[in-house]
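quick q for whoever's on today - can somebody do inverse folding on this one?? i tried earlier but teh output was garbage lol. tokens:
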């Protein structure tokens, strides 16, 4: 029911803390994993670690905001393994320059270039890989796409305006693409998303922790609003990933699964 052996998986943004853990888990379960990032050199160690553990991995340079770059990456995957069974759209993130911070930068001062970078990285960086690798799945009439959403998609977070807007759009796009693939292409192509709660990453660490490692006021607020009382760990995402990627979720498409310690369910009272 949860067999991924010999599946070919493409994982974008594979150099991130959460997404690299996903790539390692897929490989550990027998999938052949193509690791994509703008700088493939940064993925060399991850690929080596996967292979040292007995898995199969390939580091490929790929810019998720460039169709041409993605098509080149897709050709490499097809030339190497002949097909694509799974796409995990892990590329994304925020920028401090696109973050409204009290006493530093108001919403009205956020630079256009920073907002464009965040929205293109998260939204366009999900849509374009779905076009390129989704077309390969369409030709085979089979495949699975897993997008990465966020709690900010459900409840816009103060400060991160561009990121929240882009992730909310990913939820909408996930539902749209799930219907399109099932009705227009094949019911054997499924599209879902995972919405992590609050995990400490390099992108948000400056918002949640002080230099001494203590929680900022914002970090403390998040913990107080998370019923399980902690930040997530990368391993917390893996069972949901495997479930959505496997035959066990064969009748599930068009959903966004929160992995959030109860954050979304808590009213604050």
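ok took a stab at it. sequence:
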């Amino acid at each position: 029911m949860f067999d991924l052996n010999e599946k070919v998986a493409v994982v974008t943004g594979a150099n991130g803390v959460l997404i690299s853990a996903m790539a390692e888990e897929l490989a550990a379960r027998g999938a052949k994993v193509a690791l994509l990032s703008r700088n493939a050199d940064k993925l060399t160690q991850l690929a080596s670690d996967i292979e040292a553990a007995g898995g199969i991995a390939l580091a490929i340079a790929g810019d998720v905001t460039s169709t041409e770059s993605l098509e080149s990456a897709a050709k490499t995957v097809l030339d190497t393994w002949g097909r694509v069974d799974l796409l995990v759209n892990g590329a994304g993130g925020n920028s401090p320059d696109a973050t409204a911070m009290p006493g530093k930068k108001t919403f009205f001062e956020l630079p256009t270039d920073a907002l464009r970078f965040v929205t293109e990285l998260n939204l366009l960086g999900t849509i374009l890989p779905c076009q390129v690798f989704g077309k390969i799945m369409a030709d085979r009439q089979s495949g699975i796409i897993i997008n990465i959403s966020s709690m900010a998609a459900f409840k816009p977070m103060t400060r991160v305006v561009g990121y929240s807007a882009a992730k909310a759009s990913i939820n909408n796009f996930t539902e749209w693409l799930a219907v399109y693939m099932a009705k227009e292409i094949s019911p054997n192509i499924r599209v879902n998303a995972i919405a992590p709660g609050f995990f400490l990453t390099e992108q948000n660490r400056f918002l949640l922790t002080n230099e001494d490692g203590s929680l900022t006021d914002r970090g403390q607020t998040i913990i107080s609003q998370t019923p399980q009382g902690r930040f997530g760990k990368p391993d917390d995402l893996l069972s949901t990933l495997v479930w959505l990627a496997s035959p066990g979720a064969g009748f599930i498409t068009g959903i966004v699964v929160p992995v959030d310690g109860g954050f979304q369910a808590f009213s604050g009272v």
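fwiw Residues 112-140 form the longest helix (29 residues). also The chain has two domains: 8-197+236-256, 202-231. so keep that in mind when u check it
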